[in-house]
Amino acid sequence: MLRYFSLLLLFITSISVAQLKSPAEFLGYEIGTQFSRHADVVNYFEHVAAESDWVQYQTYGKTYERRPLTYAVVTSPSNMNTLETLRKNHLQNAGIEAGNGTSNKAVVWLSYNVHGNEASSTEAAMQTLYQLITEKQEWLENTIVIIDPCVNPDGRDRYTNWYNQVKSTPYNPKQIATEHNEPWPGGRPNHYLFDLNRDWAWASQVESQQRLKVYNKWMPHVHVDFHEQGINEPYYFAPAAEPYHEVITDFQRDFQEEIGKNHAKYFDQEGWLFFTRERFDLLYPSYGDTYPTFMGAIGMTYEQAGHGRAGLGINTDEGFELTLVDRVAHHTTTGLSTVEVAKNNIDRLNESFKAYFNNDDLTYKSYVLTGHPDKINALTELLDLHEIAYGFTAQNSVNGYRYGTNDSGSMDSTGALVVSTNQPKGKMVKVLFEPDAALSNPLTYDITAWSLPQAYGLEAVASTRLVPANSSNNDVRVVNQVGPQGAGYIVTWNSLKDAQFLSDLLQQDIKVRFSEKELRFNGKAYPRGSLLLTKSDNRSRQDFQQVVATTANTHGRTLHAIASSFSDNGTDFGSPDIKLVPKNRIAVLQGEGTSSLSYGSIWHFFEQQLKYPVTSINTSDFNPSAMQQFDVLVMPSGWYRSVASEDTMKGLKDWIRSGGKVIAIGNAVSTFSGEDGFDLTRNSTDDTSEENSEETELIPYDQREKSMLNNFITGSIYKLKMDPSHPMAFGYDDTYFSLKLGSTSYSYLENGYTVGYISDTVESYSGFSGDTAKNGLKNSMVFGEARMGRGSVVYMVDDVLFRSFWENGKLLFVNSLFFVNSNVYRL
Asked: What percentage of the chain has pLDDT greater than the value 70?
């Protein structure tokens, strides 16, 4: 009888499989011989889910360009019948959710194509799905596999559509061929040209925000991020390179090695080359391998040779032809091998995963933060995305490490935000809030500092004692009523929320002023930068009171009604130091010569955060005469040879002198170094001395890379002195913590205004800086304004919009747009 039922089950399964099509049968071409569009991939996954009870397929969101974000859950039918119970048991076993559930399943998440032009992995996702449910069903009895076939559909389709349009038939493997050379910006980033593989922790993009909801729902034991690298590197897989962050456990290290050895077994059988333990470290928390690792998983990056250059096939420098068929085979093999190792180690994975969430041995028990409510709220919104718990304390003071002074001390903590490590995600709390990440090796793949208290402009103390906290700070919703007919209103200027309020008013044609002096009305003081909404400026608007009140309520801004414009301290509403905010017409350069990442962060900031109109101009179309239509030109970080030409520079100067304003960010600042009239000089260094040159020449070949670290700054946090009286610094005090991405250093402006600077005492608080690079920052300008005729050039050596996560820098950019040199007002 038992044999009969077994044969019946086999018969039923064979019928089901017979109706299921392979990727090649469904798409009409062998996988690897064409690039599949995202819609075709979605259609195939839907087909598999419809034809197989081993797969559930769901949409978890949409991209900016409205493409679906999807994932498949792959496991046995019996597991499917109790999937929600298994998921809860998994989280309860680790203590992530309350309850007494135990787990005897492994959860593996395979994440494909976060970089759009690393397109082989999505093709491999389809093949991996098919082989799992047709060849590896036994593995799925105790394993739940989650497959996200394409993290970045907008970037993938940008690449595949371009490639399908330009490729030869048959494809041309010569490196010089058009199909191997993508135009700017390439398919790597998403719609807003963000690198989604650096956005896991900051979650500035909709793809990341929506994915985190599903990730937190499942919290896998193993997470793999599939990538591609240069055409001449074969294949990289775990174990990762040093430095490993100190929260990573011995089990996580050892299990990476087990997986790597299993991969090696299959690669050696096929004669495929690979390398391990080089380049890709586990430190920066916002990657697709590190973020899962700090959430307890075995997080790994797999890198296949290829990238956007490879197309369907390309000749490597070593004389081989690398094909998409090969690339898909390699990614399929490592994906299946990962699942195999997981299913063979279910008990170890569950035990070690549970142990990871015990945080008793962490030194700091609570991080206590104070500051403007808007900045506190911005931080709690990020914590909510990661489902990290927090509260607010009634304790009067707290002792510990003080972030603002870089030493031990105490802080008034009444009502302060408290984020403690006595919660399941306590290790991630440590990673995000720690004052300075420990480095076992300064040769890293990314920035080495990101401390959230400084990124959000908050004073903080890290305490070795657990600080008691309640779950709510009793926020009161701001409700402004339409007031009596006084002189107008004042709104203080402190945060991006205030900037969004200003942007909204300007677009509704409400005239707004700001004060360059401190104000006092009715016994209350208002700082520099405060906005003034006057009845006088808006006499023609019968709805002035209603529009202002409604807009303030929308943005949660408090209107301070002023009955009389006659001040307490001599600065009345009509003072020349209270200036109209211009409704500036803003242009941003993009295209060849600009950093796509820098441009993307600016574009995203205007459209998704400030919500203010901006015109993007391609560098190939830029000419100074066109600037007569604009008041402000923003230059993203980049290399502006065309702008630096004699004729273009002359036209740009004429436009500035007539009242135009240039905001140069990052490497764009170098465009004006040494140019006549721009008041910008690069600081000299001693690196070119004959003695240093001889020392460098004598360094052995295998030590040269490490020796050069003295000249580098790899994303470190520095303390700047600020001039808070300058409009660029309104909303700030006399210090600012800046994320410095490089060692470029400029002298103080001789005739202009050095607003943010490093003096003779160089203070770095977090991250790696080589001694030579650090010393080269002495007496350097970081933020400044140079006047030219009626106009200005604003220098932002440090990119305050970098990856959109340095929240405290964004107001510097808005101030530069609207407050700096606001003497020229255009109707």
From this structure: 94
Residue-wise burial string across 423-444, b where 16 or more C-beta atoms lie within 10 A, e elsewhere: bbbbbbbbbbbbbbbebeeebb
Residue type, 654: D
Evaluate the CA torsion angle 429, 433, 435, 439 in order and state its sign. positive
CB 103 within 8 A of CB 277: no
pLDDT in tens, 109-146: 999 999 999 999 999 999 999 999 999 999 999 999 99
Domains detected in the chain: 49-356 (3.40.630.10), 366-463 (no CATH), 488-580 (no CATH), 586-689+702-818 (3.40.50.880)
Count of other CB atoms within 10 angstroms of residue 333:
22
Burial class of residue 418, CB neighbours in 10 A (0-12, 13-18, 19+):
buried
Token pair listed for 580: 């109209």
- The beta-carbon contacts of 320-323 under 8 Å, at least 24 apart in sequence, are 321/173, 322/231, 323/32
Cβ contacts of 130 within 8 Å, gap of 6 or more: 20, 22, 23, 48
What amino acid occupies position 124? A
Amino acid at 419: V
Distances (CA, A) of 717 to 246, 402, 463: 20, 15, 21
pLDDT at 6: 44
Of 818, 740, 826, the C-alpha closest to 783 is: 740
Closest of 232, 375, 236 to residue 316, by C-alpha: 232
Note the Cα 802 to chain centre separation in Å: 8
Q: If you search the block for the tokens 């973020």, which residue do you land on?
A: 291
Query: What SS3 class is residue 144?
Result: strand
Q: Who's near 720: CB < 8 A, 6+ residues apart? A: 735, 736, 737, 738, 756, 757, 758, 782, 783
Give backbone dihedrals phi and psi of 381, rounded to 5 degrees, phi first: -65, -40
Provide Rg for the chain, Cα atoms: 29
531 torsion bin: left (phi>0), alpha (psi -120 to 50), beta (else): beta
> ∠ CA(400), CA(404), CA(407), 5° rounding?
45
Condensed to tens digits (0 to 9), the pLDDT of residues 235-278 reads: 999 999 889 999 999 999 999 999 999 999 999 999 999 999 99
C-alpha distances in Å from residue 497, one per residue of 208, 457, 500, 730, 814: 22, 14, 5, 14, 11
Q: Which residues are paired to 798 by β-bridges?
A: none
* Structure token digits, residue 640: 């502006």
3-state helix, strand, coil in the chain (%, to 5): 35, 20, 45
